[in-house]
């Protein structure tokens, strides 16, 4: 029996140990039951220590008259096997005068570790404020009407991870609701338009109230996240974000229709700084932190066979906006536009993943060649500097003979003489000439001598022209701008057929920005609607055409957040194709 009793004691001790293990996290915070307060009001100030035992040192409360307190209370409970204990010091106070007064942090010493609460700034107004509902960390009670308490008991916020960034640097925007109402039904939301930003949406679940309360001026609020987005500013200067608005009903029940409350959030401003210093020539708009690699699958091959060149850019930043690096291939190589593949993840940490470019390259003639060094430059906001990485050069040996290049392309319609006594019947009209006429010094003789020299000179001229075009990267991009735009528009057409309206407008936006970047010779990182308009005006492009382009870009930006009812997507696509054609004929 004694042995059995020892086992029972051991099991009880083990269970208590499990409960204790689940309650190791200590929290220390201070709250007020309302803020602001009136000069004629009393309010409650509480200091709470959760899951810990220690000495609590309250702050000075000299700016207030302490009506009652401090009173000390303890709370202990186990919910779903999880143990929680709390010690609370409570003060009932009245302001001495109106103004803003800061209650300094309270302190607690728990097992040799010092904890501090946040300071609380209490705003005191003349007279008496509307009484807010009593709220603590575990419950939320409110019987006040929405008309009287909507500003204090319901808040809508746009929370930004950063307010000052570099051009192209990612920002996380979180749209939240904070409330002290017992129940609330959200009936409608209108998210802000984000002109001047490229955005990526986080795939989030339906909005739910979080377990933890959020403190606002010392007052606890329930919190729900409506949406998260990653923003990439596309122009410099100060950009103000429009407010988020919601319509809701509060305190609705079977017998009570509740009150309608419409709220608008803050309208934060983001300061976008230009990239510092001189922008390297190899920079093409990447902002973030990246790794870079490039490789080829063959270094020796016969003429007319293919090489695969693969470039991979991985990391965190504006991956969706990164263009392929500028490459210079030998003139004797036939090249094709790269295939772009994305593996991109959008999360609370930002946009991460990789973008790869795969080129198909075919050397047409034998010899020793080299694909020059491939350079990738990006701007790292953390270092506030440009970072350049490179791969290569890549030597390539092409085997085979020059004759093999054209093998199989010669005419096969040659009639051969098979015997000495019978010749084939000539069906063509012929002229009779003297058999004694010699080929020497005839026109054919001189033409035969000169043809190889003329052909060689033309070959050299062609190679020089091709090499010049390849060296002129900007010129090549300008000449191929229309072709590249049409290629990008094919992605928009795919989205159109898939009835993916958001992706459709995103691809139209990429096509227009990519076309203007190539045609105007402006890096994507420096391109904005304002820059495009100013550049086109300098080139004396018609104002009507400039406005049409500006309106089209704006429609793409706005369509990602709200439906566009002016025309169908098919009409918009056709209009964009015509717009690019008109621009291409006027921009020289």
Automatic annotation (TrEMBL):
Specify the domain of life of the species encoding this protein: Bacteria
Q: Does the keyword Transmembrane apply?
A: yes
Enumerate the UniProt keywords alphabetically.
Answer: Membrane, Signal, Transmembrane, Transmembrane helix
Which residues lie within the region annotated Disordered? 126-152
Q: Where is the composition biased (Low complexity)?
A: 134-152
| InterPro entries (UniProt xref) | BatD
Membrane spanning stretches: 443-462
- Signal sequence span is 1-23
Name of the molecule in the record: Protein BatD
């Amino acid at each position: 029996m004694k042995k059995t009793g020892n086992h029972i004691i051991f099991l009880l001790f083990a269970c208590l140990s499990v409960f204790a293990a689940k309650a190791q996290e200590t929290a220390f915070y201070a709250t007020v039951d309302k803020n602001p307060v009136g000069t004629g009001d009393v309010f409650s100030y509480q200091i709470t220590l959760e899951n810990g035992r220690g000495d609590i040192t309250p702050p000075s409360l000299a700016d207030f008259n302490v009506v009652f307190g401090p009173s000390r209370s303890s709370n202990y409970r186990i919910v779903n096997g999880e143990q929680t204990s709390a010690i609370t010091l409570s003060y009932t106070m009245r302001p001495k005068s109106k103004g803003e007064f800061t209650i300094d942090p309270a302190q607690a010493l728990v097992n040799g570790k010092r904890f501090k609460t946040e300071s609380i700034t209490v705003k005191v107004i003349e007279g008496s404020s509307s009484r807010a509902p009593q709220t603590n960390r575990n419950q939320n009670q409110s019987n006040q009407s929405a008309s009287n308490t909507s500003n204090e008991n319901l808040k809508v916020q746009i929370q930004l991870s950063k307010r000052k960034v570099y051009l192209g640097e990612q920002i996380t925007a979180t749209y939240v609701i904070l409330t002290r109402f017992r129940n609330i039904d959200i009936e409608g939301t209108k998210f802000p338009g984000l002109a001047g930003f490229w955005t990526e949406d986080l795939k989030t679940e339906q909005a739910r109230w979080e377990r933890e309360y959020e403190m606002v001026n010392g007052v606890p609020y329930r919190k729900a996240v409506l949406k998260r987005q990653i923003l990439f500013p596309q122009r410099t200067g100060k950009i103000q974000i429009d407010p988020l608005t919601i319509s809701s009903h509060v305190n609705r029940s079977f017998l009570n229709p509740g009150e309608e409350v419409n709220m608008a959030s803050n309208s934060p401003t983001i300061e976008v700084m230009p990239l510092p210093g001189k922008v390297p020539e190899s920079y093409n708009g990447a902002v973030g932190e990246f790794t870079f690699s490039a490789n080829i699958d063959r270094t020796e091959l016969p003429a007319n066979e293919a090489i695969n060149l693969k470039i991979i850019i991985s990391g965190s930043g504006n991956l969706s906006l990164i263009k392929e690096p500028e490459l210079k291939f030998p003139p004797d190589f036939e090249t094709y536009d790269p295939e772009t593949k994305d593996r991109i993840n959008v999360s609370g940490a930002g946009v991460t993943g990789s973008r790869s470019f795969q080129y198909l390259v075919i050397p047409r003639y034998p010899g020793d060649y080299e694909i020059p060094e491939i350079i990738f430059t990006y701007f790292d906001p953390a270092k506030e500097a440009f970072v350049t990485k490179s791969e290569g050069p890549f030597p390539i040996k092409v085997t085979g003979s020059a004759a093999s290049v054209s093998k199989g392309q010669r005419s096969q319609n040659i009639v051969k003489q098979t015997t000495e006594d019978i010749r084939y019947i000539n069906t063509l009209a012929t002229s009779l000439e003297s058999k004694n006429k010699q080929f020497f010094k005839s026109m054919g003789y001189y033409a035969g001598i000169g043809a190889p020299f003329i052909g060689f000179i033309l070959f050299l001229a062609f190679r020089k022209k091709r090499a010049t075009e390849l060296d002129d990267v900007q010129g090549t991009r300008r000449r191929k701008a229309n072709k590249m735009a049409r290629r990008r528009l094919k992605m928009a057409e795919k989205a159109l057929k898939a009835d993916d309206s958001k992706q459709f407008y995103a691809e139209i936006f990429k096509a227009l920005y990519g076309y203007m970047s190539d045609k105007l010779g402006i890096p994507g990182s420096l391109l904005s609607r304002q820059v495009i308009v100013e550049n086109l005006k300098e080139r004396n492009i018609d104002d009507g055409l400039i406005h049409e382009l500006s309106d089209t870009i704006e429609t793409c930006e706005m369509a990602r957040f709200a439906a566009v009812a002016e025309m169908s997507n098919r009409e918009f696509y056709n209009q964009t194709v015509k717009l690019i054609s008109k621009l291409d004929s006027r921009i020289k």
